[in-house]
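User: Predict the full complex structure for these chains.
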Amino acid sequence: MKGLIIGGLGIFHVFLAQFAIGGGMLMCYFQWLGQSGRDRLGIMRKFIDDYFKYLVLICFVTGALTGVGMWFTSIQISPRTIGLMVTEFHWLWATEWTFFCLEVVAGYAFFRHGKTLPDSIRLQLLLTYTIAAWFSLFWINGILSWQLTPGTWTQSRNVWDGFFNPSFWPSLLFRTIVCMVIAALSACVVINTLPLPRETRSRLIFHSSHFLLPMIVMPALGLWFVAVLPVDSRQWVMGGSVAITLFMNIAVGASVLIAGYAIVGLYWQRLTINGATATLLLLLAFGATAGGEFVREGVRKPYTVRQTLYSNSMTPNQITEFRQVGSVTNDPYPLLNEERYPSEQIRLGAKVYRLQCSVCHTQHGVNGLTHLTATWTESQRRMNIAKLQHTKNFMPPFAGPPEEVEALVQWLAWVNAHEPSEWPISNDPDVLEQIAKWLHEASDY
Amino acid sequence: MDVTFPFGLPWPTATYLSLYVATLTLHMLLMHYVLAGAAWLTGSSLVNLRRSKPAQQTTIAKALQDWLPFALGGAITAGVAPLLFVQILYQREFYTANLLLSHRWMSILPILILAFYLLYLQKSTWLNHRAAVLKPWVWLLITSCFLFVGYSWTENHLLSLQKQDSWTTFFAERRYFFARWEIPLRLAIWLASAFTTLAAVLAWQLCNVPTPEVAPISKSSDQRDFTSEWRGLRTASFLAIGLSMGLSLGYFFTMTLETRTIVAGPLAWPYILLTVAAWGTQIWIWWRMTAPKHGTSRMLLALSAAVVVTTLGMNVIREAIRLAEVDLATLFPRHADAANVGGAGVFLFFLILNAGVMVWVVRQVVLHLNANGDH
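Assistant: Here is the predicted structure of the two-chain assembly.
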C-alpha cells in the first residue's frame, strides 16, 4: 500500500521533471528555428515566452516540491532504502544538486529577462537551462537504474560500477526521448490555448511534431532495457506477472498510439491538432509514463536494491541473524492498542506483520493479507510463509524463527476470524519443528 | 568537544558537518528573505487595509512581491543540499523524527505548494483587478504557510535530538505534535534574524538592483526619495537585531547546564563571538547609513558579509546544541563509511564549474540590461 503512494507521487514527479527537461530542448529548437531564418511567421520568440511561463509555473513549483516530496515519501516508506541510496551516491546526488541550482538560475534568468534579451543570449540561456536539466536526469537515472541492475557493484562496491550499471544507457536514452515526447505534446496543448491564427498554430504544431519522431527508436531502446534485466525480472515483464505485463502493455500501447498519431498524422500528413486531442495525447503519455514507472518499480521485486536490500528493508545478512534471534525481539516500538490483542503470540504476529509485511500489504485493503490468505488452510499458511520466496518469487524470504512464522499464521487466522477477544495459543513442538524444516528447505539462511 | 567546530573531529565528520552548515546557511539566507518578506507584506498590507484611503504600494512592497517567488524557488533548491548532508550525518535520528511525525510532517509539502502558487497569484493582475481587498488576507495565508513549515522543521529537528525512550513514548501515545517550549522560542529567533537578512537585501534592492517594476535610483537630481522606506528598514533592522540578541540570550539560559557548557565551551564560543561581532557590525553600518545615498557598495557589501556571518554563526551554534544532545562518537564509523564511497572529486569539479556558469549567466543578463539601460 505504502508502495502505491510513492509510486503515485513518483509517476507525477517523473512526468513533471521530464516535461522540464524536454521543454528546455524544445525551446532551444524553437529558438534556433527563430534566429536561423526558418521562422517565416516570426512567432517563435512569443511562443517560447508563453510556453516557458507554463513550464515555470508547473515544473519550478510543483515539480521541484514533488522532488523533495519523493525524498520525504521514501523516508516514510523505506528509510533503509533511501538511506542506502544516499550513503552510496551522496556525492553524485550533491553533483545533481549543482546542476539543479544552475537549471533554476538559468531558467529564472530567462523567465524574468528573456523577452528583452537578444536572440544569441536567449539561446545561451536556454541551452544552459536544458543542459543542466538533462544532467540532473543523467545523475538521478544512474542512481535509480542501480536499484534494479546494480551490476558489478554488488561485488566491487565501487560507485561508478553502480552508477554506470547495465540499464543506465538504455534507461537514459529512453527517458530522454520520453522528455521530448512530453514536451512536444504539452506544446501542442499550449499552442491551442494561445490566440493564434490557424496557419500559425499549424506551423508550431508541425515543428513540435519533430520532437515526436525519435519515438521510432523507442522499441529498440525498450528491447535493450528488457534484455539487460535480470532473468527473473524479465520473465515478469514477459508474462510471468499478470500485473506487470498488463502495465507494460499499457505503456507500450499508449506509446504506439501516440507515435502512430504523431508520425502519420502530425508529421507525414501535416494535420493540425486541437486542444482536446492534444490533451488526450498528453494524458496517454502520462498513462505510458505511469505504466513504465510501475514496471520499473515492479520488476525490482523482491528487492528495493537488487541482491542487497529486500523490499521489506531486510538485508540478506539480517535474515540469517533474525532466523536466530527473531526479527522483532529488539523492536523498541510497542503496538498501538496493545490491549486488543488476546495473547502474547498474537501480539508477536502483529509486530511481525508490521515489520515484514506492512510496507506492501494492508490487512484488509489494497493487497490485503486477509484476502490473499483467506482460502489457505492453516498448514498451507505455515508452509507458504516459511517458504515465502518460493510461494511467490517476488516475495522476500521470511526473516524470523519458526515461532514468528507461527505467530504470524495465528495473527492472520485471528484477523480472518474478525479479531475475537479470545484465541488459543499454538505452541505444538511438532508444528514448530515442521516450520523449521520448511524454513531450512527454502533457503540457506 | 574541546576544539572549535569543526576541528578536532574525524575528517569525514568534519567535512560533512562543514558542508551541512555551509549549505544550510545558503538555504537560510534565502529562506529569511521569503519568510520575513512575506511577513513584512502581510503587516504593511494589513495596516494599509485599515486606512480610509489605501496608500500606494511602496517600492519595498513592489520589490518583495516581484522577487518572492524566485527567492522561494531558490530557497527550496538550496535546501536540497543540507537535506542530503543531514541524511549522512544523522540518518537514524532524522529518519526517526520524520517517521514519527509522519503525515503531519508530510503536510509541509502541499502547504509549500499552496504558498508558492499564492505568491504567483499575488503578482498576477487577476487578483489586483478583481479583489484587491483580498490581498492582505492572501499575504496572511502565505505567511502562515511559511510559519507552519518553519514550525514543522523546528519540531522535526527537536524531535530528532531526543533519545529512544522519548521516541517510543511519542509513538505509543500516537502523538501528532511534538510540543516543546523551545519551538516558539527558536522560531522567534529565526524570524527576528530573518528580518536582518531581509533588511540587508532590500537595502541592495533600493540602492542598486531595481526590479522591472521598481523605479531605478539614478544619480540624477530627480531621483525618487526612499528616505522613509529606508528609515523603516533601519528601524526593522535595529529591532530585529535587538530581538535576535535578546531571544538568543534568553534561550541560552534556558538550556541545561550540560548543553550550555558545551555551547559556551571551545566548540562554539568563537562562533558566539563572531555572531555578536557581526550583529554589532550590522548595527554600526545601519547607524551610519541614515539615508539611501549613504548606501555605498562598500557599506552594503560589509552589511551583507555581516549578515552571512551572523547566519553562519547561528547555524554553528544550532549545530553545537545538537552535538551536545547526540552521541556523535557513535556516528563516526557511519561517516567514515560514507566518505569511502567515490564521487567527491566529481562533486567538487561540478560545484566549481556550475557556480562559474551561474555567475556567467547572471553576468550575461546584467551586462545586456546595463548596456541597454534596461532594468
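Chain B touches chain A through 59 residues (CB under 8 Å).
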